[in-house]
Amino acid sequence: MGVSRRRRRCTILPASGKRSPSSGGGGLRWRIGSDIGLRCRRAHHPGLRRFIESFRNRHPMRLRPSHAGITLRTRLLISLVMVCAVVLALLGMAGLISTQATDRAQAVLDAQIQPLVLLHGLKTRLHRIRESEVKLALTEDFFAAFSRHERLVAERKNFGEALAVLCNAPSATPAHVLERVEALWTQYDEALAALGQPVMEMRMEEVARIATYETANRFAALSSALDRVAEETRLAAKASFEDAALRQHRQWRILKLIAALGTLAFVLWVMWLWRALFGRLLALNTAATEMATEGRAELDVTGRDELSAVALAFNAMQARIQARESALRDAQSELETRVLLRTSELYDVNTRLLREADERQRAEQQLALLSKAVEQSPVGIVITDTGGVVRYVNPAMEVVSGGSQGVAVGRLAGVFDPAMNSPVRVSEMLRRLEAGADWDGELEVGRPDGSRYWAHVSLSPVVEHTGDTTHYLVLSEDISLRKAQEAQILHRAHHDALTDLPNRVLAMDRLNQALLHAERHAGRAALLFIDMDNFKVVNDRFGHEMGDALLVNAGQRIRGLLRAGDTVARHGGDEFLIILDDVGGADVAASVAEGVRQAFAAPFDVGGNEVFVTLSIGAALYPDDGVSASVLLRNADLAMYQAKEAGRNSWRFFESRLHEATQARVEIETCLRGALERGEFRLVYQPVGDTASGRIFGAEALIRWDSPVLGAVAPDRFIEIAERTGLVVPIGDWVLETACRQAAQWQREFDPGFHIAINVSPRQFRADDFVSRVAQVLAQQGVAPHTLMIEVTEGLLLHDHDEVLKAFEALIAVGARLAMDDFGTGYASLRYLKHFPFHTVKIDREFVRDIGNDPDDRVLVDTAIRMGKSLGLSVIAEGVETADQLAILRGFDCDLIQGYYFSKPLSAEGLHAVLAKALVAPQHLINPA
Ligand SMILES: Nc1nc2c(ncn2[C@@H]2O[C@H](COP(=O)(O)OP(=O)(O)OP(=O)(O)O)[C@@H](O)[C@H]2O)c(=O)[nH]1
After folding, report:
1. CA of 724 to the centre of ligand 1 (A)
2. What was the pLDDT predicted at 45?
3. Do 476 and 587 belong together in one domain?
4. Are residues 468 and 521 in the same domain?
5. Do 577 and 722 share a structural domain?
6. Which of 812, 808, 683 is nearest to 740 (CA)?
7. Using a 6 Å cutoff on CB, does residue 534 contact ligand 1?
8. Does 536 sit in the ligand 1 pocket, CB within 6 Å?
9. Measured distance CA(794)–CA(806) in Å, rounded
């Protein structure tokens, strides 16, 4: 039911929603279906219906007493008569005003214009009299004079009559003015009358005299008076006319006002007519239309005329219709209520049905989804009966279990098959499931073809609402890959990537197990620490890859020598460990060590090269040499050092008496690591002097180590360790740079030819970038290359002649000089001097020391100096401590000397001071020869 229908059931409301003040005594006017007033929303609504009834009771429809009994026709006639009367009254007033205006104009004409006309006539006559008088005076003929005189008399008479008319006529001219005109005329007329006698007597001279002296003045005065009268009359006429015009204007305004009032009255009448007739007709029409279309309840009834009768008829009709409508509405309302009730019931039923259908559909979808998920699940799913016979198997499970030959409907599931799985486990699983519990675990399950795979299996009983177990659900995930990866990761964590041997971690674990076993059985275990001798040489000569291959081969060779229960591990670098479990005594360990050593007598084939490698082996026994894995390892390591010390290619048992010495070496090695970074090294400079002049030629840079732990450590204690560990390379680099920087300063300040000598170890020399590093430092520090002397020992020259020669030549190309240090201590020194391009040779202090006492040494030094000189080398004698030694060396023509007699090694500041002093006051450290 729409809004419009509801609106149709409207009530009757006051036009403004309340009683109009103007209608207090004249009755009430009602509007029906007003937009402003109260509206009916639901006429069948009981509350609203009650309101309408009470409203009707309070405001009953009634007739307006003001127009009671007067018909519409009568009212029209009365109003028409009234309008006509008003129009006629207006026309009468206009006519009256017009007549008054005409009369006033006539009066003005009479009072003003007529005297002016008369005056004009008088003036004309006066002039004719004067003209006649003058002509008369000029006439000489009697008859003519007589005639003219007669005419003059007649004109005087006419003038007098005209003047009388003027004076008697109503005029605005003041009376005293007219009297004066009459007096002047009388005087002029008397003078003219005096002409009669002389004319009769024809005394024309008299006539001329009178006309000239008596009448002329009187004529002029009269004429002037007439002009004044005319002027005043004209002014008075003008004033009267203006007054009349003003009055007429006022009357016209009044007329216009009356006309406007008349028009207004007409308009009001028309409005009244519109309202009383057409307005009501229209309202009646609108109300009737609303009644027909929108269900308006009643029409507005005003007055008691024909229209009111029509409205009342409509209202009666509407009342009947409304009564019927109301009955219909009640019936409809009841019907609607019943329909609503029924609809609501149907809706509830429908909703329930829909919900059920929805739930069913969702359940079906879920079932389909579940079934699809189970079908497509990467996890193997099997449903068995309680006997373990497969009732459902998903594709993933089929694949994992070995296709149709594996898990198949009707067969016993693999997990429950004691033939494919451990019988103990199968019974344990079944026991748990029967007890209604889940089972979860990792199984290595067999396939029909005999292969096995790892699976993570979850077993759950499928329990009915009755509590009975009907099936078992088996979820099986193939974790073979993960297992394999885990095993791989575990293997990597415990094995050396290169050799695939157990690494240090696993080795320590195995050693601990061996120790435990030995402890439990009161037995012995042995640990062998193996280090390959000079392995670096292999790397340097054949390359790192070949070194790797050799390590792998060496590992395999050692592994091949041992029992399966023994462990061979790579400890790191070129070091291997052998763990011998349950050895009877030291002899077993010794025979294994010897066996391994001998096994390495055979060469290795590395990339087609035959490589011989020897081993240094240290052995430690449990419990004799230590009861913990770490102590055994340390002691086996120390024993290995002993084997190295003993010349390599050998094995040693740990001996506690050797422990301390080795311990000291280990301590030095430990402290040496990082000493450079901690700034524990310094350089001292031992001057080299010119033998002949005693002047400073240069200095040798010597390294000193002040360890905060060990105190001052002599170079011969740590250089060898630094050489072995490779630490000598960065330390030597630091020496090179520091010495060159210092030399550059002294060359700048004191002597451009100042020489600086540094010692280079074989390992340092063999570094690939050594020569380029020397060139770089020289350039960086600004040191003239020929002032740098690089001292090497014979040890460098023992191996790799060609390589060393190449490096020497490269250094010479850079401009550096080369010195052979400790000349005479080796056996092949002389050959080396010939073979390598040295610039200088340094005779070892061992020969110089006894030069004064031992004739052999004297001969040896003399020969060495001669030989050096014959090869074009300069010669430096080291360790010169006495004047005798100096004298002898001078005698041998030795070029340069170095030793305490000349100067002890000095700090940089010390030598700086000496050099500064020598610059200011040249002096020599020793007396020149
Ligand atoms: N190719 C190769 N070389 C390695 C590996 N690990 C360490 N090395 C090298 O093995 C050498 C071990 O040197 P050391 O044992 O200190 O010295 P050495 O040359 O064997 O001399 P000694 O032990 O004193 O006889 C070093 O040069 C390392 O660079 C590796 O995995 N592969």
Report:
1. 10
2. 47
3. no
4. no
5. no
6. 683
7. yes
8. yes
9. 16
Q: Is the pTM of this model over 0.80?
A: no
**Mean per-residue pLDDT, 34-56:** 43
CA 847 → CA 791, 812, 855, distances in Å?
18, 29, 11
> Can you give the CATH number for the domain in which 451 is found?
3.30.450.20
Q: Is 436 in the pocket of ligand 1 (CB under 6 A)?
A: no
What is the number of other CB atoms lying within 10 angstroms of the CB of residue 778?
A: 21
Task: Please tell me if the CB atom of residue 647 comes closer than 6 angstroms to any atom of ligand 1.
Answer: no
Q: How far is the CA of 777 from the centre of ligand 1 (A)?
A: 29
pLDDT confidence tier of residue 49, bands split at 50, 70 and 90: low
Using a 6 Å cutoff on CB, does residue 640 contact ligand 1?
Answer: no
Residue 16's pLDDT is: 37
Q: Going by CA atoms, what residue is nearest to atom 32 of ligand 1?
A: 548
Number of H helices, E strands in the chain: 31, 23
pLDDT digits (tens, 9 = 90+) for 771-780: 999 999 999 9
Q: Which domain holds residue 95?
A: 77-276
Q: Establish if 364 belongs to a structural domain.
A: no
Question: 541 and 478 share a domain?
Answer: no
Task: Please tell me whether residues 702 and 601 are part of one structural domain.
Answer: no
Same domain membership, residue 551 and residue 476: no
**Ligand 1 mean position to 610 CA, how many Å?**
19
Rounded CA separation 642/476 (Å): 60
| Distance, C-alpha 317 to centroid of its chain | 78
Taking CA atoms only, the protein residue closest to ligand 1 atom 29 is: 536
- Considering only 172-186, 489-503, 512-526, which range has the smallest mean pLDDT? 172-186
* Ligand 1 centroid distance, CA of 551 (Å): 10
Chosen domain end from 276, 300, 316: 276
Q: Does the Cβ of 823 fall within 6 Å of ligand 1?
A: no
Ligand 1 mutation pick, 539, 617, 640, max ligand atoms within 8 A of CB: 539
Q: Is the pLDDT of residue 845 over 50?
A: yes
Are the beta carbons of 244 and 105 closer than 8 angstroms?
Answer: yes
Q: Is residue 387 part of a domain?
A: yes
Query: What CATH number should be reported for the domain holding residue 587?
Result: 3.30.70.270
Are residues 642 and 714 located together in one domain of the fold? Answer: no
Q: What is the CATH number of the domain that holds 797?
A: 3.20.20.450
CA distance 501 to 559: 9
Task: Read off the pLDDT of each residue in 59-85 and give the average, rounded to a whole number.
Answer: 63
Cβ(641)–Cβ(665) below 8 Å: yes
Residues 770 and 886 in one domain: yes
- Within-domain flag for 66: no
Nearest ligand 1 atom, CA 548 = 1
555 Cβ below 6 A of ligand 1: no
**661 occurs within a structural domain:** no
Atom 26 in ligand 1: which residue has the minimum CA distance?
Answer: 536
- Asked whether 228 lines ligand 1 (CB < 6 A), one says no
Measured in Å, residue 11 CA sits from the centre of ligand 1 at 117
Atom of ligand 1 nearest to the CA of 531: 23
Write the pLDDT tens digit of every residue in 627-667: 999 999 999 998 998 898 888 999 999 887 666 777 788 78
Reported ipTM exceeds the 0.90 cut: yes
Ligand 1 centroid – CA 806 distance (Å): 24
User: Is 574 touching ligand 1 by the criterion CB < 6 Å?
Assistant: yes
Ligand 1 atom closest to the CA of 616, numbered from 1: 25
> How many domains is the chain built from?
4
- Judge contact between 702 and 715, C-beta under 8 A: yes
Pocket probe for ligand 1: among 536, 641, 727, the residue whose CB has the most ligand atoms within 8 Å is 536
pLDDT, residue 658, reads: 65
Instruction: Tokens 């690089």: give the residue.
Output: 790
Q: Name every residue whose Cβ is closer than 8 Å to that of residue 461 and which is 6 or more positions away in sequence.
A: 433, 434, 436, 437, 438, 469, 471, 472, 473
Of 219, 243, 276, which closes a domain? 276
457-480 pLDDT tens trace: 888 988 888 888 888 898 888 888
Q: Which atom number of ligand 1 is nearest to the Cα of residue 540? A: 27
Residues with Cβ within 8 Å of 419's Cβ and at least 6 positions away in sequence, in order, are 446
State the CATH number of the domain containing residue 216: 1.20.120
